[in-house]
Design brief:
The protein is globular, with a radius of gyration of 32 Å. Mean pLDDT is 89; it is low at 1-11 and 13-17. The termini are far apart. The protein has 330 residues and is of the alpha+beta class. It has helices at 2-10, 28-36, 122-126, 150-165, 183-188, 195-211, 248-322; strands spanning 45-50, 55-61, 67-74, 77-78, 96-101, 105-106, 114-116, 135-137, 146-147, 171-177, 217-220, 223-226, 229-230, 244-245. The strands form four sheets. Strands 3-2-1-10-5 form a five-stranded mixed beta sheet, sandwiched between helices. Strand 6 (105-106) and strand 7 (114-116) form a beta hairpin.
Length: 330
Amino acid sequence: MALAAATALAGCESSDLLSLSANAPLPEDVKNHMKANGMTRSSPIMVRIFKEEAVLEVWKQKDTGRYGLVKSYEICAYSGKLGPKIKEGDRQAPEGFYWISKGLLNPKSDYHLAFNTGFPNTYDRANGRTGSHLMVHGSCSSAGCYSMTDENITEIYAFAREALQGGRQQAFQVQAFPFRMTPENMARHRNDASFAFWKMLKEGYDHFELTKIPPKVDVCGRRYVFNAEPESGAFRATAACPPMSLPTKLQTAYQTLQSQQALAFDKAVSSLEAKAAVAEQEAAAAAEKKAAQELAEAERVAAAAQAPEKKSSSPLRGLLGLLPGGGSNR
């Protein structure tokens, strides 16, 4: 029991103290923005997280069915570095696609307010990843979680509470990314050990960018698949993926986007490599200059060390000249 309690505390789990902020209303400016954009308090939401930019976005469904950005919040702190959570105790904040139901909201958190990310999800379990109590919470302190200021988590919690109580959404999607998955950012991180994983996440990122609708997420062959329908059988997390297809319009749009972004990626890589080459040349020139300066200094010191010997011989000759017979010719 004591061990379980300690683990819960280390993992940002809740206390028994009721947070008075759990029922705080959304601010008036947020309500006005929603009204002007065809959204209601009970409209479904989606959350996007970007580690490198330290941003959490709240999106809401419009009356068109597509989602629009309502508000962005600064992430006060997140644990670990860029890259997914792999195992319990690695202090990494998770990356991937997660679903948050009402039961994962925590109004009694030791960290003001919180919701559990639902880690490990189906993908994580299929890949043997472990961890628990990974939260988005307040108090600006993190141990494997995403931490916000108390003021910001109060608003985010209100979005979640209103959407889940509205009856139109049983759970909302959280998309957690290492960074905004642009071709330029992908190029910058192309040599990272997590690059293959990030390329997989990028497919879901791109689908949302194209449709502005949270993607349908499945897992097969121990990988994510997005907006796909199996042509036979069903998706099973650890089994090979069956033949599958995307909706025709989405498939066409996605292929076009892939072609455009492949060119942008190659251009970004070329630019980065050119800059790296210039930086390498400048570093080599600086090293050569430094070596020349050090050699010149060493020669100067050596010359200075020899100079006193030459000077000391002159006074000696003068003294010899004062002795009887010194300096005369006989």
